[in-house]
Structure formats: structure tokens, C-alpha cells
């Protein structure tokens, strides 16, 4: 894989709450950090996202009495998986992980900060209408080819990749630089959605 000056590496939610021991731990999430750092050094352009929830966020099971984490409810914009409280604004678990070494990152995009709507994708909130502004940023900068890594493969990486492709960016997922939450059927659904959207899955070693 030969990188171009208009390529961008999009790193999703590399935060302690998604690492082992965190509030919403993704198994093996910390294992990707050395891969992420090596990858980032190869790219001229890197953007990071940061999950950034207020208290009583709509995605928290604790905001819905009687509901358990990882159950699903219907909200105004459709199905919503309920999660343990995580990535609370200003908390240690919401900071970028200290082992992420990307000093040349040019943008940190916070998402999920509106209490009444969740936000998996780096491009659109979960109503699939409210933009984060990332697409406009990339277009204004002339960045065209999108490579995505981070957490979690079957949620925020998935929706960021699908939306990036739908918005006209050539999009690729770096599979060994992700890890999945792994709820029932979530990885299979992610793989199927990538195949349907013709989004390639490659390995970090493909960059040489």
C-alpha cells in the first residue's frame, strides 16, 4: 500500500474506558496501541475521535430505570443499545489513552456530547442526519482516501467506515488495528455491511 499526500488515518475512540479495566472494556483493546502508533507515524494526516458523554446520556443503561447494560430499546431515532456509563466528560476514562503517541494529529473530534442522541460514527450522529462536520473538514483540506482503525470494530469503526464511504471517501478498515465489542452477531453484521459497501479490510503490514 503506497500512501498518498491526500490520505488520512482516522483513529476511533482510543480512550481508557474502552481498554481492559475500563467502564466499557473491549477485550484486547490495549493490544492495538503499538500498531496504532506505528501506523500513525506513516501518515502525514491523522485525526482522532473522542467519545465525550454528559451525565444521564441517552445511551447509558442507568438513564433508563429497569434496563440492563447491553440491552436494546427504541428511542426517537430508532434502536439504541444501552451501555454502562462511560467516557463521561472530563473523566480520566474519557481522555485519550496515554500510550497513544500521535503528536502530529491535526484534529480531535468529540462525539456523543448531545444528551439525547448517541453518536457511533465520526461523520453522523445516530439519527443519520446530524453531521459532526468531519466530512466538510476533510473536503476543505482536500483529503480523499480514508483509513480507519481503533475501537470498536463492530460499532464506532463500523459506522464511521460506512458513513465515510457513503459520503464519497475511498474508505478502508485496518482490521488488525481494531478490536470488537462482540455482542451476539455484531461482528458478523459488521463484516457483511463492509462487504455490501465494498469497504476493504486490510492489515497494518500491508503498508510495508
Written account of the structure:
The chain has helices at 33-42, 134-141, 153-166, 186-197; strands at residues 7-12, 46-51, 72-75, 78-81, 107-111, 145-151, 170-179, 201-202. With 208 residues, the chain is α/β, with parallel strands linked by helices. The mean pLDDT is 97. It has a single domain (7-54, 97-207), classed as 3-Layer(aba) Sandwich (Rossmann fold), CATH 3.40.50.850. The protein is globular. The strands form two sheets. The protein has a six-stranded parallel sheet, with helices on both faces. The protein has a two-stranded antiparallel ribbon with strand order 3-4. α3 runs parallel beside α4. The chain is built from four helices and eight strands.
Q: Which range best describes the helical content: under 10%, 10-25%, 25-40%, 40-55%, 55-70% or over 70%?
A: 10-25%
CATH hierarchy class name: Alpha Beta
Sequence of secondary-structure elements: EHEEEEHEHEHE
- Tell me the fraction of residues in β-strands, as a range: 15-25%
Poorly predicted tracts of residues = none
Which sheet architecture does the biggest sheet show?
6 strands, parallel
Overall average pLDDT: 97
Structural class: alpha/beta
What is the number of beta strands? 8
Under the CATH scheme, the architecture is: 3-Layer(aba) Sandwich
Instruction: For the record, give the distance between the C-alpha atoms at the N and C termini, rounded to a whole number.
Output: 7 Å
Q: CATH superfamily membership, which one?
A: Isochorismatase-like
**Integer tally of domains:** 1
Largest sheet: spatial strand order? 5-2-1-6-7-8
The CATH topology assignment is Rossmann fold
Shape: globular
Nearest-angstrom radius of gyration?
A: 16 Å
Contiguous helical run count: 4
Amino acid at each position: 500500500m503506497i500512501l498518498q499526500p491526500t490520505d488520512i488515518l482516522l483513529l476511533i475512540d482510543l480512550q481508557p474506558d474502552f481498554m481492559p479495566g475500563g467502564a466499557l472494556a473491549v477485550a484486547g483493546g490495549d493490544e492495538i496501541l503499538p500498531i496504532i502508533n506505528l501506523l500513525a507515524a506513516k501518515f502525514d494526516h491523522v485525526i482522532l475521535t473522542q467519545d465525550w458523554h454528559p451525565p444521564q446520556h441517552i445511551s447509558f443503561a442507568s438513564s433508563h430505570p429497569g434496563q440492563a447494560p447491553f440491552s436494546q430499546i427504541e428511542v426517537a431515532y430508532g434502536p439504541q443499545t444501552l451501555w454502562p456509563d462511560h467516557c463521561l466528560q472530563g473523566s480520566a476514562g474519557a481522555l485519550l489513552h496515554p500510550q497513544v503517541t500521535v503528536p502530529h494529529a491535526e484534529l480531535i473530534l468529540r462525539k456523543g456530547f448531545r444528551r439525547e442522541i448517541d453518536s457511533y460514527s465520526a461523520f453522523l450522529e445516530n439519527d443519520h442526519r446530524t453531521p459532526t462536520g468531519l466530512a466538510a473538514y476533510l473536503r476543505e483540506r482536500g483529503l480523499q482516501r480514508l483509513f480507519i482503525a481503533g475501537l470498536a470494530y463492530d460499532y464506532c469503526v463500523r459506522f464511521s467506515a460506512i458513513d465515510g464511504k457513503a459520503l464519497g471517501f475511498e474508505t478502508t478498515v485496518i482490521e488488525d488495528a481494531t478490536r470488537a465489542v462482540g455482542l451476539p452477531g455484531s461482528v458478523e453484521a459488521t463484516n457483511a455491511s463492509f462487504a455490501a459497501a465494498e469497504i476493504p479490510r486490510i492489515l497494518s503490514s500491508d503498508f510495508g
